[in-house]
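Researcher: Please translate sequence to structure tokens.
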Amino acid sequence: MAIDPSLVCYFRGEYMPLGAAKVGILTHALSYGTGCFEGIRAYYNPDEEQVFLFRVDEHYDRFRQSARILLMQTELSTAELSAITAECIRRSDLHTDVYIRPSVFKSSEIIGVKLHDLEEELYVTVQPFGTYVDIDRALKVQVSSWRRLDDNMVPARAKITGSYINSAFAKSEALLNGFDEAIMLTAEGYVSEASAANLFMLRKGVVSTPPVSENILEGITRETMITLIQDELNVPVIERTIDRTELYAADELFICGTGVQMAAIGSVDHRAVGDGKVGPLVERLQQLYFDVVRGKVPKYRHWCTPVYIGANPGESMDYQANHSNGANGYTNGHADAELPARAEPSLAG
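Model: Translation complete:
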């Protein structure tokens, strides 16, 4: 589906239409994958007529970690990045579920493989976004022939643009073979994660998930699931190595991530998981998760940052005092243009 070029993004220190944000074909990151990104979701709550950014600060903390690993530093704080994101949504006048893609990348237009002494650029884009995979049914997955990258090759805990070719090989292999998704193993043969999602297994009353040492992305949705499973469903969760054949013997399996959200697995390598349908644990967890992300569960309301000012009486986020308006004052013609201006934060080059 084509993306609306009039959506407002943040690029080179100002707000502009997405269609106006361009980079040169010799950009270092395009040639060598020298950039990092983050995937963040915002969810619309129709009862409150509010859009909530879900765990946005945690996402931007991870984003800044990824940048450090690539020898990049931003002058923008987590709070400033979160504010820019909310402003892009407001200026784009989005009142639906939203996917946010911030990225910082090596922008020098040169030939040469390295990470240091290069210029950098930052962008933040927003767009309406629904489901990435069909979460209403159990997925068919295969164990991929492609192994997961090792931390000493390309660090999985950083969302590095170039490293996702590893995921692309596995995902296309699975789709072309008639499956919905791939599960990747480490070089040692243990379960790592799906092509772009963390994995959980219910077996004998205990939920297990691979530890961070198995070259997984340190998922924020993964952390959320661990909390909800233990504290709300009262099921124990352990982090441990998982053998491939344990997947065949599992009672339930599911994957989760910002893009995927959460989806049940109905079969692995043509072997049914449970009865091959969405299991009772996943069914309960899905309902709980989507209530949480839409700000409907008071206990976890602190994970949900409201975007629109004044939609919820008593909200503590002081956007009018603290959020950036942009030097160019660009809106798409619908968003509130009355917010006060402030100096634009910049990216360290």
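Researcher: Any highlights?
Model: Residues 139-278 form a domain with the D-amino Acid Aminotransferase; Chain A, domain 2 fold (CATH 3.20.10.10).
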